[in-house]
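Lab meeting prep.
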Amino acid sequence: MRLRFLHLSLTLVAVILTACEAQDSVNLYIGTGGHGHTHPGAMVPHGMIQPGPDTRIHDWDASSGYHYSDDSINGFAHTRLSGTGCADFGDFLVMPITGEAQTQYVGEKDKAQHTAYASPFSHEEEIAVPGYYGVKLERYGIMAEITATCRTAIHRWTFPESEKAGMILDLDYCIQDQTMLDMQVEVTGDTIRAFRRDNWWQYDHRLYFEAVTSKPIAGYRIVRDTVQLERDNGRMQPRCKLLVDFGKTAKDEEIMLKAAISAVDAEGAHRNLMAEQPGWDFDATQEAAAALWKKALHCIDIEIDESDSTAVDQRTIFYTALYHAQLSPNVFQDVDGRYLGMDLKVHQGDPADPYYTIFSLWDTHRALHPLISIIDPAQNEAYIRSLIRKGEDGGLVPKWDCGSNYTGCMIGYHYAALLADMMAKGYRNFDAELAYKHAVRSAEYDTTGITPACPTWLYPYIMPKARYYRQTLGYVPSDMENESVAKALELCYDDWCTAQVARMMGDTARAAKYERWARLYTNYFDASTGFMRGKMADGSWRTPFSPARSTHRQDDYCEGNAYQWSWFVPHDADGLIALYGGRDAFVRKLDALFSASSQLEGEEVSADISGLIGQYAHGNEPSHHIIFYYNAVGMPWRTQELVDSVLHTLYANAPDGLSGNEDCGQMSAWYILNAMGFYQPCPGQPVYAIGRPLFKSATIHLPGGKTFRISAPGNSRKAKYVTSMKLNGTALNEPYFTHEELMKGGELVLEMSEKRP
């Protein structure tokens, strides 16, 4: 692919774009508005470095550093998260400038979204495609472009005629409110080396940086000072900025900066830079990045009616989702194989077997990893190998690791779900014994062996007492553990997953134990209300109770309410149906979920409860399987109606086109699977439920050269009902097929009609 800004009096007049269809269909701005928390930066699949524009610092919608509603760019940082509900990173922000550098402190909350040197910009003079980002910085008249390899970024800045051109490297810049612990920077010739250590979501975040400029550095100075923050009881915060002077520039003079990062040491950053960016060929780097995305996006081909503008938009949503699904987890290992482990010590790994970070498993075990098990199962196996290494280095597999830091974020231990799903599907390119050991280690309450991997204050988060109460009392008391119902229900599912692994490993005694624990969800069902409720230590129900009430992260539910969480028994649909009193009663309750008022109660309602159909909340992950319960009760047409509604109303080709956080690929993976016509309601059970396909056909390119095609004759916007199902010419009597059947290749034909069968 070749992409370049063309200039006329410093104005962007055209973009030349030659690319494959899939890449043409990606809109990197989907999710950058609303609360999607995605970013349009330049990166390669699973890249260790994520260079891109930063437009804001504070608030929930600063999670990726960029929000589409903003009109100023602070600069270009080299690390960021995609689609998360928490923020961190923003390391080593660079900003090309003309004139005198403005570095004064601009204050906090009301002003601090923008730095003193920020530049206005227009979306009309901005472009983002996979592997490339470019924008005109109006304040300086500079065209700024970025592309990347796995561990390096290369910036190309086209300057105006100027008496004084330069750049700022801002070491204290960060997304959100990191506490700066150490900042170091030095300049040798045209090489810049820096180090930063800070504390925020990552309790001990360390990163090394090396950059080289294509134009000789005429001079530089380091600005250090300290400011008193209005927050944190007036805490003093150090600041450190490197100001680089390039001297004069001619009109349209190009200056490049190439940079690399390492979590290991300065030598690691240097080796990464020399290995992946030895020269100065921006266009070749960009073309290589485009080639990686071409390969990543062509794992699935879809067929649409090109004359249908809605279908064209849906294709864009689909391929953007496929792009988002391959941003993380991220490589976190230097080219020589060294990596920073969960014990915050350097370990030697295999350069050919990357070590990964950013495992948002609470989100991604539901749809992202099942999707990867289809399009690239070897990638999931690599993730499991990384997670095993994390357990070995730190003493416990993390629930949510960020930069090899235990964050303690979210609930459950969903590594077990990923492991059970892959093993049930026949994939074992990892040490199964070690993998199983760590699943069991995560299941039971045990705080030993974690030190010194994390500070002691994190213990209750990474090893919650909920596990202790479950195994000693048989339930989690709501007056002794926050989010008790959600924690208990997710533990039941994870215990079921561990039981599946135990059986596959021949450990029948332990399998029976965890299967018993998996059924403990019945302790939370209140037949009088028909909801899962918090139970006190004395055995009574927590009162008062309203299923629509939410107090974010401070009640019996996690990012939801009783309406959403009462359905989280993906591993035992029959048992849940029985709790409700049988099929008919279950259907009535399920219907009531989707027809209920969407009004939420409470003064601190979780912002994660979004994308509502009744009280079904598609904007957050605990709801993502619920629609498929209708298949389980013989009403697939109702599943098809609801899938159709979600696909058409809760995803859009627009910056605010996601109904909730992207969450590291989960929201996108749900769309990808369902747009093709199926979904896996229970990872660990290698069975796919048929829903409502969105396209005329979708062809999955499977490992080994096989293909699996889902064709939908008669499909249209109104024809949302499946009237017949044939797998390789054989009629299906139930709306299900197996992973084994899919991976053999072939064709699933779903005849569509406007009339409900």
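Slide two material, second protein:
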Amino acid sequence: MSFFKSDKCKICKKNLGHRFCFRTGKDICWQDCNEMRIDRKCPSECSYALKETDDLSLKTKADSIAEYTDLLKKQIDKWISLPQKIFGDEIPRNMAESESGQQRLIEFFQQFQINSLIPLSYLKDKLSLHDLKVASHIKSYEDITIEFLEMIIKQEWKQTIDLLNNPERYDNEEFKKNYLLRLQSNKILVKLTDFFLVSSALSQDKKKSLVYFQLNGKYNITISLKRKNDNWLISEKIFGKPEIVNSEGQAMQQIAVLLSKNKLSDCFELLKKYSSIYVDSSDLNYYWGMYYMISNNEDKAFNFIQTAVELDPEFLEAKGIYATMLTQRKKIDSAKLIFEEIIKKNPKDIKSMNNLASIYISEKRKDEAKKLLEKCLIIDPNFEYAKKNLEKL
């Protein structure tokens, strides 16, 4: 697993040292960076140096909400202990000792309600401002990933489902069992004891995000999320730095080419390599399924195709193969439902229509079968499988 090892911060010797510090000449973590830059003595050429402001806001660079919030709290600790011009050079901490002073502070802080990054709850506790109204906290993409990893540490495996994108897919007991088995079989997650949030990023349309962590002081994981109805939900875990997230498509293309050329040995090595990185890739599981189908290992092929569908219920090609495999395993009712779902999504999927018609024929539902087969031939008059099934009628 040496691929995942990271360089530690040269100050704390624990967290990932992910940025160069001009003051120390060393790579340090953002927590130690915050401890240092709060004194505003960092050289101006450093993009993380603090710029002077007259209020609680900060002009600086931060790589995550967690980092910025931590820095704000340090700023608040200093601010409440120093004379402030806006209060006639009175010290906020001293003002909070009187009722009139508290009222002036509350009136001042209420203006920050619209800025969700200002930790008003922290100010409220620090100054004992019991009457300060604080808006309810809306969970950010970072909050969701932290909650997820805390559940993993506690081994609350089932509870993690509620944090996933499309959690309703796990109403399917087979999918739920499969998900939990994969989670509990991951050698890194099952031994997780601590984590450090390194950085995060938000897409331009604010509908997707990435949160990058260091696990147990040595493994990298990037968690991808999607926004759904103002809630952030986890869509994928990738064991590596954020830079490799966009490399998944290229990796899958390499595998597809090897499969098409029947280079199974080379394909196996790539599948094995990427399986430790793109653990939630529906495409990767699909290609594993194809690999084992070519290798005539139907049981393993079925397991991987099932996982591909579990990970991406909209993956129609994988769903079609999955439904066909269910038919072969005599799970006819489940297969019918899936074929019907596929046809509803793609009314021109003649393979699924033909397969569903075959099931109808076996059930003596000839009229329904004929209707489907005729639709197939309208779309593709040369579709031989539909012609042969029509002959049976």
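Talking points for slide two:
Residues 194 and 216 are 5 Å apart (CA to CA).
The chain has four domains: 2-127, 141-240, 246-313, 317-393.
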